[in-house]
Amino acid sequence: MNTIRVKKCSTCKTDFNCGDTLDGNKCWCNDFPPIFSPSDVVDCLCPNCFKEACLVKIDAYVDTITPENALENRTKDLPKAGSLQEGIDYYLEDGKYVFKSWYHLKRGYCCKNGCRHCPY
Known about the structure:
By secondary structure, the chain is an alpha+beta fold. It has one domain (5-107). It is built from two helices and four strands; from the N terminus they run E-E-H-E-E-H. Strands 1-2 form a two-stranded antiparallel ribbon. The longest helix is centred in the middle third of the chain and has 16 residues, at 47-62.
């Protein structure tokens, strides 16, 4: 049974489709980093509010990272998301991908290419 559930965003009150179904399909939110514990979220958020909540939490975490502690960061141990998220993992500049610190932290090491947002 492939029944899509309509939910109301607990932040902006917009209706949106939850992708979790009874036959095992996973929601779009599974493509985002698993950085929330159940106590952090009252209920589901729409895609826009969820992305914004992720950005706030990620930016606060990245602000604690220094070159001295970057190699020991816990980001690299998170389960891998299915895809990269624009605005979280990268942004586009003149048609080119610019990877953000979060992307580099998830990778877990410096590639020695002189990346603009390298935390290492």
